[in-house]
Amino acid sequence: MNIQIIAFDADDTLWHNEPYFDEAQDRFCELFQNYASKQELLSLILNHQVKNLPIYGFGIKAFTLSMMEAALQLTNHQLNGKTMELIIQIGKDLLLKPVELLPEVEEVLTALKGKYKLIVATKGDLKDQHRKLHDSGLGHYFHHIEVMSDKTEMDYEKMLQRLDVTPEHFLMIGNSLKSDVLPVLNLGGHAVHIPYHTTWEYEKIDFEIQHTNFKAVEHINEILNLLV
């Protein structure tokens, strides 16, 4: 690989994220446990999230609005003010969660800095992702942060044009096969998948990836051996 730019996904690649959303959904399920089973409630939230992606995009604010819509559907639009306030608080608490780095992230970034141009390429709320990068203490490792509305081939293509790099010189590292790997491979770039122990249902795929530009590792420090 003749790599010039390495992009890291942020949530669940550099720091923990999905468990916070799992906790938030558990709180929602507790509020509405008398309306449906937990599985049905989780499915309802997911359905609203997926339906709203073209309008709200990704991130905590979009998630909170989807919870609100799910609650309105459950209560036949009889949602009281107190419960509405509790749902909003779930979203606010998500936005205030501390940033907890994943193991060996900083050691890997230290080893790569100066040898490659490092960037963050992530989805979500612009303000929240910038806040997390600041709070992580990792900002000085990165040349650029790209908060994308989505991670489609077109989104990556536009980003690569802004970075003035061709796909064959670009490597994307992340925990989502759907968002961090497939679009980049389709453009002719390189991708490394680092699994996280829990994955949002929307980001799952049901087939195995076979591609010469694709590598799968168990831990982030393994990418150093791939780049030697």
The count of helical stretches stands at 9
Low-pLDDT residue intervals, each spanning 5 or more residues: none
Head-to-tail CA distance between termini: 9 Å
Helical content class: 40-55%
Largest sheet: 6 strands, parallel
Strand arrangement, largest sheet?
3-2-1-4-5-6
- The fraction of residues assigned to DSSP E strands is 5-15%
| Class derived from helix and strand content | alpha/beta
Could you tell me the number of beta strands? Answer: 6
Q: How would you describe the shape? A: elongated
Using only CA atoms, what is the Rg? Answer: 19 Å
Spell out the key features of this protein.
single chain; 228 residues; alpha/beta; six-stranded parallel sheet; 9 helices; 6 strands
Summarize the structure.
The protein has 228 residues and is α/β, with parallel strands linked by helices. Helix content is 47%, strand content 12%. Helix 1 (18-31) crosses helix 2, helix 1 packs antiparallel against helix 4 (81-95) and helix 3 runs antiparallel to helix 4.
Account of the 3D structure:
- The protein starts with a strand and ends with a helix.
- Helix content is 47%, strand content 12%.
- Helix 6 links the parallel strand 2 and strand 3.
- The protein is built from nine helices and six strands.
- It is α/β, with parallel strands linked by helices and 228 residues long.
